[in-house]
Amino acid sequence: VGNYLRVKDVAQVKRTFEDEDVINKTLGTRAINLVVIKKESGDAIDIVQDIKGIVEDFRKGVPSELKISYVMDLSFYIQRRLDVLRNNGWIGVSLVVISLLIFLNRYVAVLTAFGLPIAFFTTFAIMNYLGMSINLISMFGLIIVLGMLVDDGIIVSENIYRYIEKGMGRREAAIVGTQEVMKPVTATILTTMAAFSPLLFMTGIIGKFIRGIPIVVIIALTASLLEAFVILPSHLSDFVRVKRGKSGRVRSKKESPWFQKLLNSYTRLLRGAVKRRYLVIPCLFILLISFVFIAKNMTYIPFPSTGIEFFFVRGEVPQGTPLEETNELVEQLELLVKELPPEELDTFVTLVGMFQEDVLDPYVRRDSHLAQITVYLTPPRQRKRDAFEIKESLREKANNVQGFENIYFDMPEAGPPVGKAVAVRIRGEEYNTLEEIAVQFRDFMKPVEGALDVQHDYRPGEDQIRVVVDEAKASRAYLSIGEIAATVRNAFEGGVATSIKQVKAEEEINVIVRFPLSERRTLETFQEILIPNRFDNLIPLKEVGMVEKGKGMTVINHLDGKRVVTVSASVDTSKITSMKLNQMVTKHFEDIESKYPGYTVRYGGEQEETRKSMKSLLRAFVLAFFLIFMILATNFNSLHQPLVVMLAIPFGLIGVIIAFLLHGEPLSFMALFGVVGLCGVVVNDSIVLVDFINKLRKKGVDRRHSIIEAGQLRLRPVILTTLTTVLGLAPVAYGLGGGDPFLQPSALAICWGLIFATALTLIVIPCIYAAIDDLAIFLSRGRKRKREL
Q1: What is the DSSP string of 324-339?
Q2: For residue range 214-230, what is the model confidence (pLDDT) as tens digits?
Q3: Residue 786: predicted pLDDT
Q4: Phi then psi dihedrals of residue 574, to 5 deg
Q5: Cβ pair 685, 761 in contact under 8 A
Q6: Which of 67, 137, 375, 393 is the most exposed place for a label (fewest CB within 10 A)?
Q7: Is 389 or 63 the better-scoring residue by pLDDT?
Q8: Nearest to 146 by CA among 753, 751, 752, 761
Q9: What Cα–Cα distance (Å) separates residue 294 from each residue in 466, 658, 660, 678, 758?
Q10: Contact criterion met (CB below 8 Å) for 679 and 626
């Protein structure tokens, strides 16, 4: 209704809506908006639900044609995404527990799964202490770590149960079994933490955006490690029961027919691979190099547009157009939006007289010739087309709309606010030169196929009348610029001549004197203005200055203290990526600054944030790699064995590349984020496998038999730890409980990377171990010969 009403709490909202004046005002208006801004205390979702109840009660007291839409209810979108993650989390937990029951003794499986709630509740408690909330990012961190939380428990419990099967007492088995794997299990958890911890130090908006994920992962893994070493062995020694046959032997899951067949097949494959290791290793490295070249040619889109649920249609009519006329013209665009099918269109909101992203948008533009329609779509799973396809279909139809100078179709970013796909910021002093440079950038990008909505933000305002004072003449007439300006202002806006006060009046009434309305509307009036100087002489304005017409400025933007004009563009990612378009622009205008001395060009928006994020991500990857190596070197007391273990990392990258090729997905920032996290996870199986080979060799088992026996002993826990991690993330990767396209790439990368890395780890790591051992033996023989000589 054109007014803002500030209320302190929900009760005051209820009292306001019960007021008959509010009902009458609402019925007499075209639309009324209720905007709620939450303070620090209180749950936003609960507040919105309370207000919705008040609004629904309000609806009962007005005619039925009143339509109420919660179009900017951000809590609705947040709640829906949290519901999707919660559903996927429950599905993941169920799949993890089922996999434990299939592979392990049911007592062992239940006690191992009991580590999940312990780790989760501990994580929630610490998050609450740190002031962290349960949101999209923190919940995704919990889902990432869901399958990993039982990995350490699986290794500990499986090793303890193996000793129980051999006839050892339960308490003794719990102590011996835990001690035997304590060192490698600690290393596996530390390597995972090492992979995620560098992400805490990522810079830029994206770094702040994802910071909650590594924090949650590290807290949860620490809790699970303590549970696996302290609580789980105690429970296993107290509650595990085994059934022995007449012979006294324990029938275990290993002796199940299906698992025995799997074990026999794996043993044959492992023996053949180790025997032909000098053929297996080169073939796999050739395969790895081939996939690296394939990855270089894959499309990279930092944040794909899938999953976006609204977009903007913005129109500009000729400047100076009255608001009422703009309102009539925008109805053409409203009709186009109404033609969208009901399974795609939820609702839309039209704003005439402004461009605005949201209620708190600091860069809102206001003018009578502007109009904006915010189109809200149905959830992605209810429609076949994504937001980009729907937006482009409207763009084609909008070509026939008359009366608009420009029509733009803007879409919010799927991730953090990184800006437009292309944003060229031109800094300098003179707007004429800034506009000249901006037009060159605009004209270069417009013909590029895939470049959309190319524009610059230099917008001269409405016509202005400027009084230019000749300071020399004004000085001779004993006038200052301030006195001239005050007189002109009083002539048109009016000045207080005196005040009057009636006998019984509480306030004085100002008497304002100014030119009549007819005189204020003509330019010739300036010629008649007389300005009194300090000697009370009246000086005509035309004697000390001149009047000229020109364009004013609606807004002046600065960057680092200088005026700036920004040229921006969106892209059709099916035709060109933002990175490619930015490279084209940068190359074409590499010498622009030398042509215009004093003017500088900066490339911002998605390009700038992508560069920052990629630089930070590369730093995180290198740091994670170094930390993992140091942890492994300490664990194995060796320099070459950590390299053997870490070869699982590039094998995991093969799985990531295959996954995104098969699913037709572009590489994105969240996919690369998943790759960094994958580095710490894929080495876990290799650590335990190599550690068992070393233990067997210390017991006197020869090299060949130690490799085969370690593979046989670790097959079940390796498969199970991989399976639990993959099953924990699979619901997010494939949207089993509802899809979230923003988080899907990370889950997809970890799932497929881990599957391929595990398959190759079980075969290739033993081959590389044997080959490096061959080299060590060869070198030691050489040294021995030298000593003999």
Answers
A1: HHHHHHHHHHHHHHHT
A2: 898 899 889 988 888 88
A3: 46
A4: -75, -15
A5: yes
A6: 67
A7: 389
A8: 751
A9: 63, 10, 11, 20, 22
A10: no
